[in-house]
Amino acid sequence: MRSDAERNYARILSAAKTIVAKQGAQASLRDVARRAEVGMGTLYRHFPTREALLETLLRDRFEALAAKAAALESARDPFAALAEWLREFLSWTPFRGLASALMATLSDQESALHASCHAMRQAVGRLLARAQESGQVRPEVDSLDLFALVNAVGWVSEQAPDLAARQERLLGFVLDGLASQQDDADSRECR
Amino acid sequence: MRSDAERNYARILSAAKTIVAKQGAQASLRDVARRAEVGMGTLYRHFPTREALLETLLRDRFEALAAKAAALESARDPFAALAEWLREFLSWTPFRGLASALMATLSDQESALHASCHAMRQAVGRLLARAQESGQVRPEVDSLDLFALVNAVGWVSEQAPDLAARQERLLGFVLDGLASQQDDADSRECR
DNA sequence: TTGACAAGTGGAGCACTGCTCCGATTATAC
DNA sequence: GTATAATCGGAGCAGTGCTCCACTTGTCAA
């Protein structure tokens, strides 16, 4: 890559990081270009779609989360490991619209983000399987359920500050819902 | 109201219903005006904000849901009543972006939608309280938790058709998470 | 050191958006 | 039939995503 191209690439990424953090995933790309002191053409040359830009911003973190999941696979308590990973996942909210972007990549195989978080999803899938094998999580839960619900909690947190403050609590409810249940609806009534 | 104004009001609402169902809450208002065969000025005269338009589209349904909640207050099994209401709530997905719009109204007291669904939220709050009094739902859950989680499930369903197909299932997990828990994390490990 | 030239740049331009404004129109009351 | 206030419609403004291409510039062989 030519040296000026490399410089611009870095400038764009840096500008995008700031602006996306402030305005969310729907930030104006013109604003990004402006802040990077670069033309629209240059921005689109380096990042042909908005998603490509977001993917580059997120890639490192996805890899780190995948690694974290891999490390937790050997933890003593599989359920606690799963819970820890989910908390870690949710603790990092770089911008509004992340949850939505992540859900969109599930069905869009072409998307840059799809490939980028595939490894992460696989790794957390193994965490889930371990928790199920140990009998701590309901067997009918699959990793799509898990991913959808944790993103749902993330989405709620994006909606308002007072909801973000409840994130831990909501995740707790969801985790309890995924955990193996001793009672069914009928026996619950008898308590 | 002048007769031509009344006619245009109805035309706009009818057009909005169709277009919002197709394009979601972010539908182009120009499209709505075009379909209603009305100028932009006319549309904005009747509905000064996009929210005002959505609110009018939703109002009837909110009232019906509030009534349904009120009716369920005398049900025999409070938990089943709550579950039934939540299922009813989720069964009606008039357009993409509804969940987000509803969450936004929570913090925005000025919004037309805020007033419009206040009664509904109060009614379902009473359903929740009954289920808690009967010991079927954890006492620490409040109606904001409930509203947030049910909207989160609704949001997930908006993201992809195969996720919409899991709506019942996801709601089930969430409901089990809100239900009174017999076991804590330690005892779960022993099973 | 100097061209040659591909690689890279930047911004004008198009079609769209939300929203405002105001001259033209029209339903209605007298 | 006319006065007039209510209503209408679309031009216009500032913004958006994205494309296109004339121009500039870094690189490298001569």
TrEMBL record, chains A, B:
Provide the protein name.
Answer: TetR/AcrR family transcriptional regulator
Which of UniProt's keywords are assigned here?
Answer: DNA-binding, Transcription, Transcription regulation
Q: Provide a Gene Ontology MF annotation, just one.
A: DNA-binding transcription factor activity
Classification of source organism:
Bacteria, Bacillati, Actinomycetota, Actinomycetes, Streptosporangiales
Residues covered by the HTH tetR-type domain = 6-65
Q: Which Pfam families match?
A: TetR_C_43, TetR_N
- Where DNA binds (residue ranges)? 28-47
Q: Which InterPro entries match?
A: Homeodomain-like_sf, HTH-type_TetR-like_transc_reg, HTH_TetR, Tet_transcr_reg_TetR-rel_C_sf, TetR_SbtR-like_C
**Domain of life, per lineage:** Bacteria
